[in-house]
Amino acid sequence: MATKPHIVELAGLRRSGRILIVDDDDGMRLMLAVTLEEVGHEIVGEAADGAAAVRLAEALRPDLITMDVDMPVLDGLSATRRIVGSGIAPVIIVSGSEADDTAAAAVAAGAQEYVSKIELASALPPAVEAVLHCERRREASG
After folding, report:
1. pLDDT digits 0-9 by tens, 6-29
2. What's the whole-model pTM score?
3. Which domains does the chain have, with CATH numbers?
């Protein structure tokens, strides 16, 4: 049985990313997974709260994490601070909030990007590609 290649193209580079999805809504996690798998990424795990996200991030060491903001146990901004502060993986905040202060709080927490759930299908794939590209360039330069 042939497998679908997991590739993404950005400036001539073809690479996939290992991604951890974090959202307390089952349907949103599914939508995120489908959106990212369609462009060739591998979903290595899913979490429904920030505390589980931190544990899974430490265990799985994904290339990137998508993180909701409003979740039980530990909110997404606190989880982002812990994950990014530990150097585990870059985080893209994916939120339903359209408020500028949410995007600013995401950046202050250490997120590399902020994507609105309203624009998920069009905005998330290029944001993921850009963050992964920057991370790979950073790693290559030492």
Report:
1. 344 444 444 689 999 999 999 999
2. 0.86
3. 15-140 (3.40.50.2300)
